[in-house]
Amino acid sequence: MDASNTPTLHPGRISHGYLVYCIISGILTLLSVICFALRFYHRYRSQDFWWDDWNIMGALASGIGVFIINILISLPSIGAAGYHIWEYTSDQLIIWAKLGLVADVLYNLSVSLSKISVVLFYKRIFSIDRQFRIFMAVTIFVITGTLLSSIFGLIFSYTPVAAQWDMSIPHTMIDTKPFYIIIAVVNISLDTAILGFAQLKVWGLHLNLKRKLLLSLVFLIGAL
């Protein structure tokens, strides 16, 4: 047999790409934990907890879950990710697919809870009027609907579900590309609406131009 056609065995070590990815993810996760701890401490001192705090706590917990799963996916003894597909055994691919599905669900949960937390946080800093109440209700409704649709699509895109990690099972599947394009467009639209609403509120305040620009910059940085 030609040596070039011989399947390559998995090298049994964390790939360089996943090592870099896990280091960067670890740093960002640590920063998130520190920021949350400072926020939680401030709320504790002022006894001012509200639903925005609990939502961001759920978002952080989900984000930490994603980080842990990515570590498991990268470990050679578990997911062993980062190499060509032909370097894996079928058992390794099954583990990788299962962990990847859980990570995707937790990621969507984390992002959605973060958005809901931001919308609820607006209630702390902006005057509450009919326009705001409508915006808050509609936005949270759309975020929740998008989250449920994403999770449902992730889990049930294959029938039966087990076919996602075992392709030997006879199955049917939906065309996921248009589904996820729609989800992406909705998420981008939500981000734009949430950020845009804050900008409208800022520029409606009775402040001088410099302070309005600084506040706008704060919200723009927060959006990153």
UniProtKB/TrEMBL annotation:
GO-annotated cellular components: membrane
Predominant localisation class: membrane
Signal sequence annotation: none
Parts of the chain that traverse the membrane: 18-38, 59-85, 105-122, 134-159, 179-203
UniProt keywords, alphabetically: Membrane, Transmembrane, Transmembrane helix
InterPro entries reported for this sequence: Rhodopsin_dom_fungi, SAT4-like
Topology term for the membrane: Multi-pass membrane protein
Compartments, as annotated in UniProt: Membrane
Domain Rhodopsin: 38-223
Pfam family of the protein (one): Fung_rhodopsin
Family designation: Belongs to the SAT4 family.
Protein's UniProt name: Rhodopsin domain-containing protein
The organism of origin for this protein: Xylaria multiplex
